Amino acid sequence: MRFQLLGPLSVTDGADAVVLPPSKPTILLAVLLLHANSVVSAEHLQRAIWGEAQPATAKAALQTCVLRLRRLLPRHGVTETPIEAVPGGYRITAGPKTLDLLGFRDAVRHAAASAHAPEAELSTLKEGLSLWQGPLLANVRSDTLHRDEVPRLAEERLRAVERVCDLELALGRCGEALAGLWAATRAHPGHERFHEQLMEALYRTGRQAEALAEYRRVKEYLREELGVDPSPTLRRLELAILRGEELAPAADGAGRGHPRSGPVVRVDREPAGGGTPGRSTGRDTTAPAAALAAAPPPPAALPARPADRRPAPAAAASEPPGTPAVPSFTGRAAEVGTMVESLARYAEHGGEPPLILLCGAPGIGKSALARHVAQLVRAAFPGGPLLVPMTDPDGAPREPADAAAALTAGLRERGDRERTLLILDDVADAAQVRPLLPAGAGGAAVVTSRMGLAGLVATHGGRVHRLSVFGEDESYRLLCAVLGAERVEAEPEAARRLADVCGHHPLALRIVTARLLTRPGLRLADAADWLAGDPIGRLSLADSPGMSVPEVFGGALGRLDPRLAEAFLRLGSLPGGTFRAGDGAPALGMTGAEAEAVLERLADAGLLEEGPPGPYRMHPLLQLFAREAATRTRPTRPTEKV
């Protein structure tokens, strides 16, 4: 005969199981079995049976319960498990073959001893977990046991389940792990380790969109139900998935039933000349900050495509599978999550093809975001991303006919049945892109533009994401991702000041981190001091003209009507960088209504933010650029009406 404690308390002979009815003798048996082979005091037994409000005759009543239990057990064939009265209390004798709890613990111990053989460890743990048969002690009506003992037993099981999932991931059996993890995360929504394992399993099986959706689900639950944020380990995993990094092989050494601390993230990219990206090989605190001025970046330190400003090839281009959109991609979690979910839902269920518009200031990272998301959903689009540059190498808008020819050729290469995600990059206006949208195989398209393209949204619909500068946390994470957490966390305040000097502008941050990578001994504080002396003049890389804040800003200004460009330069002279139409009217030599029309056009071009009913804002770097450019051009006459 065998006692089953891991579920409703029951007795089984292997073929039939008898669930004991709720009663005080059943509570007594449960307590003795929970402490099998140990003496359980009479006081402990009395509290378990009657709680804190014990009757005056509790001691005598306990003896009656013991007598009733001794008479009950033989009726169910139990004759070899005596209940002993010993000094201080009572004891029941059992072993792994007669009590499932001891059998489970014995299996866990044997599994831990087999940690050098993952297959054997996994098999033994699964055998032990098979002993669990349902809700713990469902027929044992004791508040004390359900408060003190049941949670402890449940934790033992959860640790074993975690270990099983670790082993399955380590052995490459992500599909097997998924079945159990879906159930575990729903049964234990606040158990972050299960969500982490589920995200890892989904990501390893090419289901990036579902992995990111799972992160959003647990984040929402933790915030709404518990008022806390996800753990650092869970956030690091989400960041790795957003950046499209490769996860290191799942470790099988969590060991002895304990879950490992989290997935190890490895990026298979090295800078030119070897070494690990973002790791210092030594610190030379005497290196002058001015050394930054002559430091060319290593090739791997630069983005695959500088934000919005690299000369485009003449034809459509696609990324090879597995190539990350941008090295060390960071931030934009909300936009990435929304875009990935929309594109993945369309690929799986069909419906109206999504049109996604990314707009914002020059250098804000629109192209980088589009390429990164395209890589995350590449499994849903077998034809891969098809990128069509909409700007010629000289910065002029590409002719629609030329772009259409490149698009047609790119689609033909993939075949009619290969669903492709179309990326129309750096669009100048709605008229340029409208003829191309119906041609996209699969229908889904991402459009990047400095312009708001409200006319395109009016005629074709779609979802608009207007990108702004990074938040403080996003900037800090980018510095950690590129330079290495060790280097940044050694000077956290200097890192934040460096981000402030860059105005949290993605292009500016990319440029300064590229410089710092070539000077691993240079202190971040010295770099921030040096950059603060002339941000516009020093935010450029001599060997890469496209990686230059003044070059990118100047190119954006060059696309505008000359009168609109002159108005922008005049507005840069206003104090504070925040103003309304009435504030700008005197500087522009216009009425308030005329000034508002100009400000609206500049906002649509990505050079101003916000607007009516609130004030307009000019980014500090754009304002510095406008003031320096105005000093060079020195406009002397009032701006003509635009």
What's the SSE blueprint?
Layout: E1 2-4, E2 10-12, E3 17-19, H1 24-34, E4 40-41, H2 42-50, H3 58-75, E5 83-86, E6 89-92, H4 100-113, H5 118-129, H6 143-148, H7 150-170, H8 174-187, H9 192-204, H10 208-226, H11 232-242, E7 246-247, E8 265-266, H12 333-349, E9 355-360, H13 366-376, E10 385-389, H14 400-414, E11 421-425, H15 430-433, E12 445-449, H16 454-460, E13 463-467, H17 472-483, H18 485-489, H19 492-501, H20 506-517, H21 524-532, H22 535-538, E14 540-541, E15 544-548, H23 549-558, H24 562-571, E16 578-579, H25 581-588, H26 592-604, E17 609-610, E18 616-617, H27 620-633
Parallel strand pairs: 9-12, 9-13, 10-11, 11-12
Antiparallel strand pairs: 1-2, 2-3, 4-6, 5-6, 7-8, 14-15, 16-18, 17-18
Helix pairs in contact: 1-3, 4-5, 5-7, 7-8, 7-9, 8-9, 9-10, 9-11, 10-11, 10-12, 17-19, 17-20, 19-21, 24-27, 25-26
